[in-house]
Amino acid sequence: MAPATTFPSSSAAERNAQQTAEFVRDGMLRNDRASRALGMEVTAIGPGTATVTMTVRDDMLNGHDICHGGLMTTLCDSAFAFACNAYNELTVASGFAIDIVAPARLGDVLTARCTEQAKAGRTGVYDVELSNQRGERLALFRGRSYTVRGKPAVAG
After folding, report:
1. Would residue 31 be called left, alpha or beta, if left means φ above 0 and alpha means ψ between -120 and 50 degrees?
2. Of 11, 42, 52, 70, which one has the greatest count of Cβ atoms within 10 A?
3. Using the 8-state DSSP alphabet, how is residue 61 labeled?
4. CA distance 42 to 54
């Protein structure tokens, strides 16, 4: 897990965009039991972007001895969640699609890099590229987001 960030003030008005993204990362991680249970780490965060990693464990393998596709999808979805909430506006997925192009195996360190493609009004589009420690592309994920008006992702 990335180290907690200390802010010069607790006032949201005094945080810049990067500090807001870090504040949201820390707050979301505290409450995100699923991501923590899977050993995910947010290794980078910024306005509309996030990078999240996860190491494939034995309990993540399916009957073919490869990482369960649902867990690869969960990693992408977590990166998507951190990226689209980085503005501290409560944002949820309205849908996503994923194409798995190669398997992940025991011990692989997976990296999901999410980048905002478009954000207008209350909707957004985000792309995630999932790769392993050798830089091999394993999946492409596109998420669509919906921002709830007037609610922060993390209070404070």
Report:
1. alpha
2. 52
3. B
4. 9
Which residues are CB-neighbours of 40 under 8 A, at least 6 positions away?
52, 53, 54, 75, 78
High-pLDDT (> 70) share of the chain, %: 92
Distance CA 68, CA 104 (A): 8
User: Are 132 and 108 in contact, with CB atoms under 8 Å apart?
Assistant: yes
Backbone angles phi, psi at 34, to 5 degrees: -65, -50
Give the three-class secondary structure for 25.
Answer: helix
Dihedral sign computed on CA atoms, order 88, 92, 95, 101: positive
Q: What 3-state DSSP class applies to 59? A: helix
Band the pLDDT of 7: cuts 50, 70, 90: very low
pLDDT of residue 14: 82
Cα–chain-centroid distance for residue 37?
A: 14
Tokens of 134: 């050798």
DSSP character at residue 18: H
CA distances from 30 to 3, 27, 95, 131 (A): 12, 5, 24, 26
**Tokens 């209070």 appear where?**
155
The whole-angstrom separation of Cα 141 and Cα 102 is 13
